[in-house]
Amino acid sequence: MATLNDIGVAAAINILSAFAFFVAFAILRIQPFNDRVYFPKWYLKGLRSSPLHSGTFVHKFVNLDFRSYMRFLNWMPAALQMPEPELIDHAGLDSAVYLRIYLTGLKIFVPIAFLAFTIMVPVNYTNGTLEHSNLTYSDIDKLSISNIPTGSHRFWTHLVMAYVFTFWTCYVLLKEYAIVASMRLQFLASERRRPDQFTVLVRNVPPDPDESVSELVEHFFLVNHPDHYLLHQVVYNANKLAKLVKEKKNKQNWLDYYQIKYSRNQSKRPIMKTGFLGLWGDKVDAIDFHTTEIKRLTKEIAAERETITNNPKSIMPAAFVSFKTRWGAAVCAQTQQSRNPTIWLTKWAPEPRDVYWQNLAIPYVSLTIRRLIIAAAFFFLTFFFMIPIAFVQSLANIEGIEKAVPFLKPIIEVKFIKSFIQGFLPGIALKIFLIFLPSILMLMSKFEGFSSISALERRSATRYYIFQFINVFLGSIITGTAFQQLNNFINQSANDIPKTIGVSIPMKATFFITYIMVDGWAGVAGEILRLKPLIFYHLKNFFMVKTEKDREEAMDPGSLGFNTGEPQIQLYFLLGLVYAVVTPVLLPFIIIFFGLAYVVYRHQIINVYNQEYESAAAFWPDVHGRIIAALVVSQLLLMGLLSTKEAAQSTPLLITLPVLTIWFHRFCKGRYEPAFVRYPLQEAMMKDILERTREPYLNLKDYLQDAYIHPVFKGGDDSESDAASEDWELEPVLVPTKRQSRRTTPLASKHGSSSPLLLSEVQEKWQP
Fold first, then answer.
1. pLDDT at 2 over 60
2. Which of 39, 375, 756, 761 is deepest in the core (most CB within 10 A)?
3. pLDDT for position 323
4. Which residues are 745's β-sheet partners?
5. What gap in Å lies between CA 599 and CA 621, rounded to an integer?
C-alpha cells in the first residue's frame, strides 16, 4: 500500500513538472516572437504593439536582457495587482466572478484545514486500530477516521467538527452569494448600452393562414405592447448557408496558403490531390483548383441567400423583438403573453455574440423529444464509462497488480517505479480518459437545442459535474474498494461487508491526492504554458499569414471554458468537503490547487482570454447549488461511515445537518437567485430615465436595427432589413392587416394599406 514516502515522491514529480512548466512559460513569454501568444488580449484591445517592429534583427526574435530571465516569477504578483473593479472593466463580470470561485475555495478550506490539523489529525493518529486489523492500509490512513476503534467516544469530535465545517461553509456561501448578487446588479446598472437589454426572444409563434411570421409578430406586439414595441427581426433557417460560407472561408485560407507558397518559389506551381485530406485522388494545380471552388461556392451562396429570403419555409416561428425601453423589454420577457401558455413564449434574448444561431432553426415542439433522447444517452454514457474507470483504479493498488500478474513483481517493486505507478500513473490515465468527454457533452447540449452559447456551456457543465461525481468520485470509491478488499469480501460474512466498505471510503484518499496533483497542480501549470496555441500560432504565422489582419486572426486567445473548468473546480470542492472530516491530510493539496489556480487564471484573464459572451455572472446559482450538493453528500457519507463504526449515539445528530443545509439552500435561492433570473423593473426604469437624460436624441432604432441579423447576412446584398420610415416617437394610428377577418393594429404597418377599422376589433383577436 502507498506510504507517505510514495506520496512524497509523487508530490515531488508533480511539483517539478509544474515548476518546469512555469520556467518554460517564463522564458517563452518574454521572447518577442511569442508576444501575440501570451498577450493576445492587449492586441485585440489595440493597447499593445508588436516588438517585432523595432530594434535590431536579433532583438526582434530573442530577448537578450538577461535580467528579465532572473525575474521569471514576476508575473505572479503582477497578476494580483489589478483591482477587481478594474478587472471587471477589462475582462467583464463573468471573468471576475469566475475567479471568485477559487477565492471561495480558499475561504472555505484554509480555516477548515487549520482546525482539522490542530484537532482532528491528533485525534485520529493516536490510535492503533489499523495496525491490529487485517485490512490493507497506508500511512495516510492512520491519519484518518479509519484509525479510530469501533464505538469510540472520539467520534464525537468528528460530529462536532462536521457541524463546525458545515456552518462555516454555509456562512462563506451566504456572504459570497450576497456579494456576487450585488456585483451583478451594479454591473447591469452601470453597464454600457447593449442590444440584449432591449430585446426578447419570442419562440413558438402560432401559424396564421393570412399573414407571414414577420407580419404576425409585428401586429401581435403592436397590439399588446403598443407603447413600447420598436422593431423585430425574424429568425431564418440559414444553417445550410452558414456551412457554405464556412466552406468558402476554408477554401480561401488554402488558396492564400498556396499563393504565398508560390510567391516564395515561382519556379514551380503548387500541386495537390483532390482526395480525402490530400492523401489520394487526381493531382491538380492547387491555386486553380481552389480558385474554381471559391467561384462555385460564391454562386451557391448567392443562390442560397436568394432562396432563404424568398421562401416562407425558411422563416422559423421565432423572432427577436426589440423595445423602446429596457422597462418594456423586462415586462415582456418576464410575463406570459397569451392565455395559451404554450405559444408566444418570451425570454430575454442573449447578447448577439452569445446567440447560437444553428439551434434557432430547430422547431420548438421538438425540443422536449430531443432532451428526452439526450437524457437517455447521457445515462448510458455515464454508467457504461464505469468499466474503464474500474481498470484505471486497479492501477492504484500495487498489491492487486502483483497478485494478478506475479511475474511483474520484481519490476514493480523497484522503488522509483512503484512510486511512479501509485503516485502519477492512475491520475494521468484517468485524465486521458476524460479529455474527450467535454466535446461529447457539448455536442449533446447542442442537440438539445439551447439558443445561446452560455446556456450550452451551463448545461454541459452540469452534465460534466454529474459525470465526474458518479464516475470519478463514486466510481473510484466503489471500484477501488472492490479491488482492495476482494480477499476480505470472500472470507467474511455478508453482515461485515457494509463495515468493510465504510472503513474503505477514507482509504481512497491516496488516489484522490495523486489525482489533485496531476489534474490540479500540473494541469494548471500546463494551462499557462499554452503549448497548443503556441504551436498553432507559429504554424499559421509561417504558412498562412501575409497581412497584419491574418496575423491577428492567427492568435487564439481562447476563453475560460466554463463547461470544462467549473465542473473540475466543483470536484475539488466535493473532495475537500467529503474528506475534511474523514481524511484531513487531503486538504493542503486542495488549498494549493485553489491558490495556484487563482493566480494562473487571473493572469490568463488579464492577458490572454477573450470571452465569447457576457452573462453578468448568470452561472453563480449553479456554482452555489453544486457546492451545497457536495456539502450534503459529505454529510450523508459521514453518516453512513459512522453507522459502520457503531457510533449509534452520534449518528442521529447528523441527520439534522442535511436538513439544515437544504433549508439554507432554499433560503439563499429565495433571497438571491431572483437577481440572476429576473431584471428588476425598478432598475430598468432608472437606467432608462438616466439614458434619456444623458442622450435625449438617441436614435435607438438605428442602434438595434441590425443587432440580431444572422451573421451570414451581415454585409451582404441579401441582408435582411426591417427598417421602416416612421419615427417610433409618433403617436399610434390605425391601419389594417392582411387578415381576412379585417382586424387592425395600432401604429403604422409596412404590410397593409387599406382603410382602418376599430381598435376594439383588433383586441378581440389578439388580447391574451
1. no
2. 39
3. 96
4. 735
5. 24
Nearest to 112 by CA among 171, 176, 177, 169: 169
pLDDT at 54 over 90: no
Q: Of 612, 561, 606, which is closest to residue 82 (Cα–Cα)? A: 606
Q: Against a cut of 0.90, is the pTM above it?
A: no
Consecutive H or E run containing 201: strand 199-203
The pLDDT assigned to 759 comes to 38
Contact of 645 with 151, CB cutoff 8 Å: yes
What secondary structure letter does DSSP report for 452? B
Res 762 pLDDT > 60 = no
Query: C-alpha dihedral over 37, 38, 43, 47, to 10 degrees?
Result: -160
Angle between helices 326-333 and 681-694 (to 10 degrees): 160
In angstroms, rounded to a whole number, what is the distance separating the alpha carbons of residues 725 and 125? 82
pLDDT tens, position by position, 248-264: 988 888 888 888 888 88
Number of C-beta neighbours around residue 257 at 10 A: 19
CA dist 112 to 121, 530, 566, 572, Å?
Answer: 12, 34, 22, 14
Mutual orientation of helices 620-643 and 562-582 as an angle, nearest 10°? 30
pLDDT tens-place string over residues 278-334: 677 788 888 899 899 999 999 999 999 888 888 888 889 999 999 999 999 999 999
Q: What is the pLDDT of residue 423?
A: 60
pLDDT of residue 684: 92
Report the SS3 class of residue 231.
strand
Cα–Cα dist 517/424, whole Å:
8
Helix (H, G, I), strand (E, B) or coil at 733: coil
Type of residue numbered 408? L
DSSP letter for each residue of 293-360: HHHHHHHHHHHHHHHHHH-GGGEEEEEEEEESSHHHHHHHHTS--SSSTTSSEEEEPPPGGGB-HHHH
Among residues of the chain, what percentage have pLDDT more than 70?
77
Count Cα neighbours of 617 within 13 Å in the Cβ-side half-sphere.
33
Full DSSP string of 93-152 = HHHHHHHHHHHHHHHHHHHHHHHIIIIIHHHHHS--TGGGSSS---TGGGGSGGGSPTT-
Total residue length of the chain: 768
Neighbours of 403 (CB within 10 A): 13
Supply the DSSP string of 650-709, one letter for each residue. THHHHHHHHHHHHHHHHHHHHHHTHHHH---HHHHHHHHHHHHHH-TT--HHHHHTTTTS
pLDDT score at 312? 85
Q: Is the dihedral of CA 532, 537, 539, 544 positive or negative?
A: positive
- Spatial distance between the Cα atoms of 203 and 658, rounded to a whole number of angstroms: 40
Beta carbons within 8 Å of 653's beta carbon, 6+ residues apart: 159
